[in-house]
Amino acid sequence: MGEQKRLFFGLELPDECKQQIIQWRAQTFPADAGRPVGADSLHLTLAYLGEVSAAKQQALMQLAGRIRQPPFTLTLDDAGHWPRSGVVWLGPRQAARGLLQLAELLRSQAARSGCFQSAQPFHPHVTLLRNALTPLSLPPRNFHWSLPVGRFVLFQSHFARGRTRYQEIAGWTLR
Ligand code: 2AM
Question: Which pLDDT does position 169 carry in this prediction?
């Protein structure tokens, strides 16, 4: 078997929004609350694919290229803490129908192509902190980002020198 890559479909966030989020995070959570995700790594995962062969990647990219769906708006107006996984996140209180449809389609295509898919329902989120294992008080929900989404991306996750980096390897326009 050839080399496998760790891949996932997701949404990139605009640079300006990433900068605003990291400023808000610094003002909102104490420095020892967890390990902050770097601005360049903030994203929203639509479908995690795990370790994927080159042949499976090609098949998944072909299916992604056939998706026809209009753009939608991603709202980030909720925050939460999952103490078991140590994740502090931002997400929508109510996910846009387009976001749910796109994730559902990518997740079902991935499952049919033989990628393991968790039985857990899709919970759209942008991970802000990792290793946040102790109880944390969440901020009042007085924040709101509203982001037009016209594109989704296939990312590769690289782990090197103790750091995870996400690299865009392909992208598709919503239309
Ligand atoms: P997380 O931010 O909640 O940890 C790259 O690792 C991306 O894929 C991250 O956004 C991560 O979500 C998500 N991810 C990693 N492993 C996963 C899994 N087993 N199931 C679903 N999503 C996963």
Answer: 97
Q: CB of 44 within 8 A of CB of 11?
A: yes
* Residue 118, ligand 1, Cβ within 6 A: yes
**Number of domains making up the chain:** 1
Specify the CATH number for the domain of residue 40. Answer: 3.90.1140.10
Ligand 1, atom nearest to 8 Cα: 8
Length of the chain counted residue by residue: 175
| Parent domain of 39 | 5-173
Q: Measured from the CB, is residue 7 less than 6 Å from ligand 1?
A: no
Q: What are the strands, taking DSSP E only, across the chain?
A: 5-12, 35-36, 43-52, 72-76, 78-82, 87-91, 126-130, 145-149, 151-160, 163-173
Of all protein residues, the one whose alpha carbon is nearest to atom 14 of ligand 1 is: 48
Query: Which candidate, 79, 74, 70, 71, places its Cα nearest to that of 17?
Result: 74
Q: Is residue 42 within 6 Å of ligand 1 at its C-beta?
A: no
List the strands of the sheet with 126-130, edge to edge. 35-36, 126-130, 87-91, 78-82
- Note the pLDDT tens digit of each residue in 113-122: 999 888 899 9
Report d(CA 162, CA 145) in Å as an integer.
31
